[in-house]
Amino acid sequence: MIAPTYGEYERLKTYGSGYSLKGCFDPLASQYILSSPHIGLSPTLQNMGNLVFGEGNLFVMRGKEHKRLRNEFNTAFTAGTTHSYTPMLERVGHGVADKLELTSDTASINIMPVINNAALTAMTEAALGYLVDDFEDRYVSANAQIMAAASDLSPGKILADALGTYLPEWILHAAVKLPTRTFNTDLAQQGSDITGDIFGALLNPDRSDTTRTPSTGEEIITQTQLLMIAGHETTATTVAFAFWELARNEQCQDMLRAEIHWTVGEAGSGNIPYDRMPLLNAFIKEVLRLYPAEPFTERMALQDTIMPLSETITTATGDQISQVPLHKGDILIADITSYQRLESRWGEDAHEFRPFRWIDGEVSKGEAVGPYANLLTFLGGPYICLEWRLAILEMQILISELVGNFAFAIPENDPITVRLANTLPPP
Ligand code: HEM
């Protein structure tokens, strides 16, 4: 069930915290769904994960295998490694600013393709150690097609999602033609001598660390599609929402620009302490709260079990319950969007975009559900987003570079409606 406008079904004041859409946004229940060994991926996500990211990818793995590979990948995604991407991301940011500068006399510019390209460039350099220009044009067009497919609202895609629960994988492979082979071919041809990037770190591990079981080249190559798609589309979408909100909120934009200019003036342009910019970080948190790139995720009960709730709810038969019995095979939706608009969690103005809530100290700590600001945007539990730190750094740098140099506004008579699809498509 897709709302005509994003946020309509999440307006809990109108519909109450339990309406007939099958979804769960109770923090405790979400924690349980995301962490319990009794809960696995839903068949739809399993099929779609294999189809889009390739067989054997981290996203569809579970249990010991996931833990081993995840531990291995975590070594390439520490806070320190992520920080080392700062100069590269700043270069990407300057490149975007230069492109916008060239077109700044045009009446109105759609910045989405520019942001999309910046996110692709950043991921290509961070993960593969290559410039986008090193690849053929089909690399860029394949990525653009994946972006379009992920936010597709077409009846065919909705049907494919529905059938995904029932059809075997080989039919899905034949039915949906995503250009996913592009990445494997490119990496196999060019990728094995990479250094100074994520794949380089994984391929050349610290051999003195005997606690690690280094991944094989094959295993790493298998994760390429996942890293590229998960790292590119999500970040581009989130940055697009950031600029949409800035364009709607001139005062916030001006204050942010002042903070950026002041910080750059104090620290120098190659030395910007992004984590110590209060408004920039409050703004990013608010964007991530209201516009999670993955608005919900699906899971399935692997056995009969009991799901706890943090608040008592009244069932259709009038019973008050504080836990929900689940049956093997029940499909569960962890509704990230609604959790992040829950008034009991974020306050009465939970639906408003108000970055200052993070500065005023109004956001209560609450249950620790995710890795960043207690948001579920990067999910929680063992299957948490692998590179949430890189996503945040990328946002900090792109926003600082662009807001520091340009002013953004929405063209007159051009209303933008946000809709929900498989992902939260950019406005
Ligand atoms: C704003 C940007 C991003 C958002 C909102 C985001 C969100 C998420 C979410 C919600 C999941 C869990 C999916 C599920 O289980 O249903 C996830 C997983 C993942 N993300 Fe991100 N992500 C972002 C950026 C990135 C980046 C930059 C990378 C990098 C390389 C990345 C790599 C991954 C990977 C590999 C997984 C699978 C982890 C596993 O299953 O163990 N993501 N992400």
UniProtKB/TrEMBL annotation:
Heme binds at residue 385. It holds the Pfam family p450. The keyword Transmembrane applies. One of its GO terms (cellular component) is membrane. It is found in: Membrane. Pathway: Secondary metabolite biosynthesis; terpenoid biosynthesis. InterPro entries: Cyt_P450, Cyt_P450_E_grp-I, Cyt_P450_sf, Cytochrome_P450_monoxygenase. Its cofactor is heme. Coiled coil: none annotated. This is Cytochrome P450. It comes from Mycena albidolilacea.
